[in-house]
Structures are given as structure tokens and as C-alpha cells.
Amino acid sequence: MIGPTEDRSGVQTHTQSSKLFGGEGMKNKILLVLVTLLLMTTTLFGMGSNENLSSLNKPISVVDSRGVEIQLEAYPTKIVSLSPNITETLFALGLADKVVGRTDYCDWPLEALEIESMGDLFSPSIEKIVASGADLVISGNFGQALILEAVEQGGVNIALFDEDQSMEGTYTLIEKVGQITGSSEKATSLLNEMKQTVDKVVASIDEKNRPTVYYVAGFGEWGDFSATGDTYINDILNIAGGINIASDALNWTFQQELLIQSDPDIIILPPNVGATFEQTKNEFTSHPVYSNLSAVKNNKVVSIEENILERQGPRSAKAVEQLASLFKSLM
Amino acid sequence: MDNSRVHKGLFILLLILLIATVVIALTKGAASIELSIVVKTLINGPANDTTSRIIWQLRFPRVLTSVVAGAILAVSGMVYQALFRNPMADPYVLGISSGGAFGVSIAAYFGLLGAAGGIWKIPIAAFVGAFGSATLILLLANRSRGNQTTLLLFGVALNFLLSALMTLFMFLNRSQLQSILQWSMGSFATASWQKVAIITSIAIFSLIPILFFTRELDILLTDESSALSMGVEINKVRTILLLFTTLATSVTVSFCGVIGFVGLMVPHIMRLIVGPRHKRLFIFSLVGGALITLLSDTIARLIVAPSELPVGIITSIAGSPLFFFLVFNSRKRSSV
């Protein structure tokens, strides 16, 4: 960035001053300036490439979700997690004592709350992250691209793990976090356990009796939002034996008239922020448009903890299990 | 005389277009329902089966809301443009719309709305915000003693301030960021018969008086010296008209969010068709605003179904190139 800008201003000075003065001496001076700038830029670029060369031989190498190869001399001993699902994964891999930073949203397991927070999910403090002395920062996908760059400039290694929005994606995420932290073995056994749980659920599904389900991500005056086909929750709902009626839609938006037409068997309604499930349910079921839905009439509006459902982490298998037994009990 | 016959024909054409669009909008939607069934459902009246609920509870009030809201926005834009003697004046530019959006974001921040909003909480918060900023403009309108440029600039500055504050409160309240953002870009998705009743009564109450002031609007816009000689009276007219249009736009914003460009674009297009006389311009803007808004909302519903786009995006995308074209064309014409 620095190189081109300075070059451009150099050229501007050149044209302007040659118009004004046009003398031989001036031309020489300009030439001198240009050569200096050229030298500076090449040195800058050179410095960059030197660094890259020297790091080629580092022993640990993991490619993150950006496709960037993260290379480390040794496994990290101080880790900052910038995403709740990463925090959960690190704890599940037995790395609790290595986590030195989290976000305000990293609230599971409860011991995680004792770790210092770096700020909120979307704009954690870069200075705090760098000051934490971390040798590795792991980020999820929360529009933190600018933060990634800044942290890297602060000289801290940073990896972004934002895999496919599916159960498979969760598996690769845990696998990669295991690789970069030197706990691949633990990751493998965790994954086996999760896959076993999921396989058991999948085997027990009655294919002829799959309920249609609708996940309420937002309702009422704000408009209708649901876990559309491009979301992780959509995959979890399907694996657990449900047929998500919003799976053809995208970007969390869904039209009310389709909800009415599809008239799902079961409605999953996470409690509103700052409200209990009962309050939220009352608000939903008393609404003139929703009150006529079969699921409302048959009292099949249920809740499940939102966090285990939407976080791609070690509790995802449990979410599948819980949903599946919920579906079975209601059908 | 001949001209007026052409205008009559054009108006009938516009009306037919509007009615046709209403019919299309009623029959098309994310839930595919056959035309014959739609017609049957409409004839049979509201019932409790799924199709009937989709048509009668969702599509019909939505179509009517967009028609009435479009009419209000376009006529208000026309009035603002004459009152401020500025082609760029409209509810959006003057900060009335962003006042509404600000009201919603601040109420959401203080937890007054609940996550789902309740049925009336959001409209009330938006109305307070919209009418609040409109009152500020009205107060200044009286103090600025006819200096329209000052007034317009005040509106623009207020608009910037409120937009910035809205963004601030949205970021302080991240969990509802997407909802507020979506709302602020305009949507008719939460239309209901109660809202249709309210917005229609407001439209009748506040737009019909404008019909009695079309001559004054003509004078205001075209003849500066006689406008000045009318003195006090013109100030009174301005206050009355501002009050009525502001009430109407505040209610519209509170039900439908921020729908840009309709108030700006429609009167300009109609002025090119029927000329600047406000008696004609009024009914043309009324129907034209309804047509364009309904068309935009139908596109917003259908283009990414089963998801949905905020209607404000459609009106702005459709509106601005047309606007560029109009400005460019009229400049060329006037320079020739």
C-alpha cells in the first residue's frame, strides 16, 4: 500500500514542477526522489519475501479456511479464541489451560467465563489480543477480516476456521483445530464419539414419518426469519430427522405465506433475547397469523437451547440427539 | 382542450395498469396458488383454510398497504417539492424517514420492543421518531420565515445526524442488528387489515385537504412574486400542508420502514407527463405512486422467493437510474 501511493505522489510532483520550473537541476532532483522511492519499495517487498522464505521450514503447518497456510515453530501454549464454537472445541480437546482469551459470547463451558474476554464477537480489541501474549489466535466467521489483518500485523499468528455450514464442516473444523494445537489424537476420539451419536440417531429415523419443521429465527413485526437452506441449523434439522420447510430459501429470510402454506408439524422457537420460552411462546401463538398454524393448535411449538444448535462445535452431536428425541416425542 | 383529453386517456391507462398490477400481485407469490383458486377464494370471502388465509390475511392487506403507502409517499413528495421549491425535497431527504428508523433503533436499544416487537410497538416507536423529526422541521419552517434553502439544508443535516445515531444504536444492540437493518430498508411483510384501515384513514384525512390547495401550490412553485405578495397567507398554507403530509408520511414510515425514492421519483415522472399544474399532478402522483410501489413490492416478493428482498432496495435501484435519465433528458431539452 505504501509503495504505490508514494510513487503516485512522486509522479504528480514531477509533472507539476516541470511545468513550473522545467530546469535541469529540478529534473535531477526528481530523478533522485524517484530512485529513492523505488529503492524503498523494493526493500519493503524484499523484507516481506525474506520472511516468507525463512518460515518455509517451520515444522507445523495447517491450511485454514481462507486457504492460508499457518506455520508454527511449536504448538501454541497461549491461545486466544474469537468464536464461541472454537472456545468449546478447545475445551473439549482438553486445552482449557492454554486458552488466554475469549469473546463476550464464549459462555460454554462455564469455566470459560473465568478467562479474560477480548471484547465482543464482531469487534474484539486488537490491542488486548496482542497484549495477551498469545502465540496463536483462532477466529471463526464473524466479519472479523479487518481484525485478522490487524492482529497479523501485530505479529501474532492467526488462523480462521470457518468450514462448510454442515455437520461435515463441524467435523473438519474440530479436526483442524486439533491439528494446529497438537491434539489430533484427542480430536479423533472426540470425532468418533460424535459420529457414533449421530449414526445412532440416523439409524433410528423412521423415514416414512419425518415431521416437517420450521425454525423461528425471528417473527412478528420484524418480519419472518428462519434457518434457511444455507444455514448450519438446516443441516442439523435434516440429520435429526426433520424436513425443514425453509430449506429452499436463503439468507435467513422466509415468507409468511409459505409458512402458512407448508403448515409444519413442529415449530422450534428459541426464546427471545431477555425473555423466557413461555413469554416468547405466548407472543408467537397469540399472533393472528401464526395462531392458525397446526403446530400452534396441536401444541407442538417447542424450544431447544439455541447455542448448541447453531454453534459448530463438540455439542453439535448432542443437538442432533436432542432434536431427534424431541421430534419422536411429538410425532 | 385536446391536451386534457390526452391526459384523461393517460390517467385511465394508469388506473388500468394499477388494477392489473393489483390482480397480478394477488395471484403471484412464494406460495404457488392457481389463478382459478385465487379468484374463487376472493369471491368466497375470508375463510379459515390455508389458501384463504394466505390470500386474505397476507397478500390482500399487503397489496393494499403498498398501494396506499405509495400514494402517500408520492403525493407528499409532490407537496414537499412545491413547498420547498426544490426538486430534491422528499420525506426521505428531509429526515422524516430516518427519524422513524432512529425511533425504532433507540427503542430496540432500550429493550422497549421485545425481540419480536409486539404488534404495535414498532409502529409507535417509528411514529414518535418520524413525527419528532418532522416537528423539528416544522418549528424551523416557522422560524426560517420562508427561507426554503435553510429549511432543506436543515432537513439534510438532520437526516445525516439521525442516520448516524441510528447506526450507533444498531451497533450497540448487535443482537437485533439484522432485524433493524431489514426493517429500515422498508418492507410490507407485516401488513394487516388493522394497518390497512389506519393508513387508509390517514391517507384520506391528510391527502384530500391538499386538493383544495393545488392553486396555492402552483403559485408557490411557479410564480415567486405573487407568492411573496400573498405573504402571511402563504405561510399559513405552508404550515397546514406540511402538517398533513408529515402526518401521512410518519404513519407510512412507521408501518413500512424507509422506502426511498418514491416521493422523489414519481412526481418528477408525472410532471413530465402532465406538466407542473398541481391539480392534475396530484391524481397522477397518487395513482403513479401506488403503481410503482406495488410493482416494487411484488418484485421484492417474487425475485428471490421463498426469501424476500427489502422493498426499499427495489425502489432505489429502479428509481435512481430513471432519475438520472430524467435529469439528463430535461437538461438537454431545456438547453436546446
Low-confidence stretches of chain B: none
Query: How is the main sheet of chain B built?
Result: none
Q: Class of the largest domain in chain A in CATH? A: Alpha Beta
Supply the helix-strand structural class of chain B. Answer: mainly alpha
Protein model, in words:
- The complex is a heterodimer of chains A (331) and B (336).
- Chain A is 48% helix and 11% strand.
- Chain A is α/β, with parallel strands linked by helices and 331 residues long.
- Chain A has 3 domains: 2-55, no CATH class; 60-190, Nitrogenase molybdenum iron protein domain (Rossmann fold); 205-330, 3-Layer(aba) Sandwich (Rossmann fold), CATH 3.40.50.
- In chain A, strand 1 and strand 2 form a beta hairpin.
- In chain A, helix 6 runs antiparallel to helix 7 (184-204) and helix 7 (184-204) packs parallel to helix 13 (316-330).
- Chain B is mainly alpha-helical and 336 residues long.
- In chain B, helix 3 (50-83) crosses helix 9 (214-222) and helix 3 (50-83) runs antiparallel to helix 11 (232-256).
- The mean pLDDT of chain B is 84.
- In chain B, 78% of the residues lie in helices and 0% in strands.
- Chain A binds chain B through residues 120-122, 218-225, 228, 246, 248-258, 260-261, 263, 272-275, 280, 283-284, 287-289, 292, and chain B through 29-31, 33, 48, 50-51, 53-54, 57-59, 111, 113-119, 121-123, 174-176, 178-180, 182-183, 187, 189-190, 192, 301, 304-308.
Architecture blueprint of SSEs:
The complex is a heterodimer of chains A (331) and B (336).
Chain A (H helix, E strand, L loop, with lengths): L1 H19 L3 H32 L4 E4 L5 E4 L6 E3 L2 H9 L6 E3 L24 H6 L4 E4 L5 H9 L4 E3 L6 H15 L2 H21 L7 E7 L6 E2 L5 H8 L3 E2 L11 H7 L3 E3 L8 H9 L8 H4 L3 E2 L3 H5 L5 H15 L1
Parallel strand pairs in A: 3-4, 3-5, 5-6, 7-9, 7-10, 10-11
Antiparallel strand pairs in A: 1-2, 7-8
Chain B lengths: L1 H26 L7 H10 L5 H34 L12 H14 L11 H23 L4 H25 L4 H8 L8 H19 L2 H9 L1 H7 L1 H25 L5 H13 L3 H25 L8 H25 L1
Helix pairs in contact in B: 1-3, 1-13, 2-3, 3-8, 3-9, 3-11, 3-12, 3-13, 4-5, 4-6, 4-11, 5-6, 5-11, 8-11, 12-13, 12-14, 13-14
